[in-house]
Structure formats: C-alpha cells, structure tokens
C-alpha cells in the first residue's frame, strides 16, 4: 500500500505546500486521490492535523481550491488532509442520481449489495488513510476533524465515534440527523438496509444525544439563506447532553456554498488550534 503512494501535484502556497496524491485503496478496492496541505516544516516539524470532509458531488479538490484555508493554516501551523468523498472507478457501483453512489459515500461502511464491495468510507478514513498519513507521510501530531454538508455529517460521526482521537469537531451546514431527512434516508436505505436500528450509529443527532464518553468540543455554522436548511439539514435536531461543549451559530444571509465556508474558515481553524 505505502510504496504505491504517488505524488500528482505540488504547489508552494502561503509559506507551505499543497499536494495531491494518488494510491490504490485496499479498503475501497479502487484508485483514490487525496489532498494535503503542509505548513512550513522548518517552523512546524510535527504539525497538528485537521481532517476536512467534503459534501455531495465533491472531490478532494473543492476545499483545496475554494475555501481559502491555506493562509490561516500556514500561520497556525496546521496540516490539512482532504480525502475524496467516495470510491471511484468504472468497476465501482454508482447511481444516476447525484446524491447516491460516486461522490456520495456518506462516510459509512455499507452493508448492502452492491455498495458493500467498495463503499467502506469510514474504515478508509479512520484506518487506511490514517495509516498512510501517519506512517508514510510522517504526520503524527494531534488531530481534529471538520466538514461541510454530507462531510459535516461525516465529521460529526467520525469525531463522536472516536473521542479519544479527535480533539475538536466543526462543521458547515451539516446533515445532523440523516435518519430523518431525504438525503440521509435515501443513502442509508441503499448502503445500510431498511432496518433503521442499524442507522443510529451513523447519525450524529443520536450519537450526541446518548454520548457519555469524553466530550469533544463542537462548533457548527449554518447559513440562514441555505436552500437546504429546513428540509435536509435541521441543525435544531442536534441536541447535546447538559453541559456538553456544543456551539451552533446561525449566520444571517449565508447560503450552502463555498462562499460561506470561505467567510468563516479562519474562525474554524482558530477553533481547532485552540483545542489542539
């Protein structure tokens, strides 16, 4: 696995380096790409690492190209890793709809055919890509996780399921209760099957409501002009136990786009740096 890691791009940016890699995933049984930003390694030889998970239809390029995160990450000495959103390739199951299949992995481990052959995104990120980042690329600093929309769902779920690993979670416009909204119901029914009891461990609203382990601080930003707010996102359904460090900010006039992310990404990185 490790010897097949291929560097596709490398760009100097804000006193750091933006890279794009390709490798064969043994977990997903296909070729995958991911992107990585490294701050100046002379100033920050062992930087903390923030994982970014993107939303529906996205690849690892969307955040890299549109969010404008590199400048603040370079100042704070944070490395950023951006995985793709699903397995890819001609032999990988897909759907004609944009909200299912390739580009819509939902960061779960699928149990239903034909999806279970490739769609093991949770294990890919938490285990396989983590091993590459730590052992091949040598990034062993403390970690946190963030994401947008479907990726916000992924960040919440992965962070809450691994509270001893991730020191903070943040999200832009996340799907907080996929068990009860159209995007999540469609994906979970396909990937996980009709038994909704099997969905609970992949639903941030349910994980947080029953959370009794180490509290992981959460920052959530949601735009009030987001077209998906009331049907798909419903941040009011993310309810934490009393005293849990959860902050939900409704940002007036902002929509679901990367313009919204770019407007507040610096504050999110500062939030992560505080807890890392």
Write up this protein.
Helices cover 29% and strands 23% of the residues. With 276 residues, the chain is α/β, with parallel strands linked by helices. It has a 9-stranded mixed β-sheet with strand order 1-2-3-5-4-6-7-8-9, sandwiched between helices. The protein is globular and about 50 Å long.
What keyword list fits this structure?
276 residues, alpha/beta, 9 strands
Q: What's the short version?
A:
The chain contains eight helices and nine strands. It has about 280 residues and is of the alpha/beta class. It has a nine-stranded mixed beta sheet with strand order 1-2-3-5-4-6-7-8-9, sandwiched between helices.
Which helices and strands occur, and which strands form pairs?
Layout: E1 6-13, E2 16-25, E3 30-38, E4 48-53, H1 61-66, H2 70-76, E5 78-83, H3 121-136, E6 143-148, H4 150-161, E7 166-172, H5 182-192, H6 204-209, E8 218-223, H7 229-233, E9 246-251, H8 258-275
Helix content: 25-40%
Number of strands: 9
Number of helical stretches of at least 4 residues: 8
The helix-strand sequence is EEEEHHEHEHEHHEHEH
What is the molecular shape?
Answer: globular
SS strand fraction? 15-25%
Weakly predicted, low-confidence segments: none
Q: Radius of gyration, Cα only, in angstroms?
A: 17 Å
Structural class designation: alpha/beta
Main sheet record? 9 strands, mixed
* Widest beta sheet: strand line-up: 1-2-3-5-4-6-7-8-9
End-to-end Cα distance: 29 Å
